[in-house]
Write a structure and sequence with these properties.
Helices cover 31% and strands 25% of the residues. It is an alpha/beta fold and 262 residues long. The termini are far apart.
């Protein structure tokens, strides 16, 4: 008996074929050549997911409507951080540690912080109380002085760097890529040079050798992959999507923040 193909199956097959064709837009061929070193996949010792005595409490993931906050909360819980997702100005101003996530456009992120009245409590916590803060992807970018994404926009100014469009094609830069340390920093303790992390972005702080740069990455030129300035930490990649290496980095941040609670 001859098999029949439904219109729905044909549509699904066509969609799958289009996805295969579009894979080249995101640098699949280039990413396939990246060597994932064994250190990336080596299991590390982490606290239990539901630790009775967390390493760090009163960690607030800032919810400004532009971030994958649930996956970040889950990843933090695995390294012994009791984190809450909040847009309450009082909770942010009084936190022991902060995480500033972000997915989207720079100008929208800054607009949301102001519209939700979160910029002032963030500044009180980070600039006055010196609370440890971790910026992830767009969260890192808005910590910079400025961005030229769809016009020129001022950022929080916590990191001495400026965000620009990556000088590469295709864009965005999506997938695994290696980072290269440029200075010794405890933030990257236990992470071997050349370890790969997961990126998803079209803009970044281009490397200038500035004092905030901890590690860089190559994609059509060097950009800043990890930055630090005093109590301010930031990654252009997504540690919550970067398997064991990402968990190690989050554990390092949690340990540092726990030792320096305000």
């Amino acid at each position: 008996m001859a098999s029949e193909t439904s219109p729905g199956m044909m549509e699904a097959a066509g969609h799958f074929a289009r996805r295969i064709d579009q894979a080249s837009w995101f640098g699949t061929d280039a990413l396939a050549q990246i060597e994932l070193r064994k250190s990336t996949w080596t299991p590390i010792e982490l606290p239990p997911v539901e630790a009775d005595r967390p390493r760090l409490e009163r960690c607030v993931i800032v919810d400004y409507e532009l971030g994958n906050v649930l996956s970040i909360a889950t990843a933090l819980r695995r390294v012994g951080v009791r984190a809450t997702i909040s847009r309450d100005p009082d909770a942010i101003a009084g936190a022991h540690a902060l995480v500033l996530p972000g997915v989207g456009a720079f100008a929208k992120a800054m607009d949301n912080l102001r519209r939700l009245r979160l910029e002032a409590p963030l500044r009180r916590a980070v600039e006055e109380r010196r609370v440890p803060v971790l910026g992830i992807c767009l969260g890192m970018q808005i910590m910079a002085r400025s961005s030229d994404e769809h016009g020129h926009h001022a950022g929080l100014g916590w990191l001495e760097m400026d965000v620009a469009r990556l000088r590469a094609t295709p864009l965005p830069h999506v997938g695994w890529n290696q980072i290269v340390p440029v200075r010794d920093d405890g933030f990257a303790e236990g992470i071997s040079p050349g370890t790969s992390f997961y990126f998803d972005h079209g803009y970044a702080a281009l490397s200038t050798g500035g004092p905030s740069e901890v590690a860089t990455c190559e994609y059509g030129g060097r950009f800043v992959a990890v930055a630090r300035s005093a109590n301010i930490f930031a990654t252009q990649f997504h540690p919550e999507k970067s398997q064991n290496a990402g968990q190690r980095l989050l554990a390092n941040f949690a340990g540092w923040a726990a030792d320096r609670r305000p």
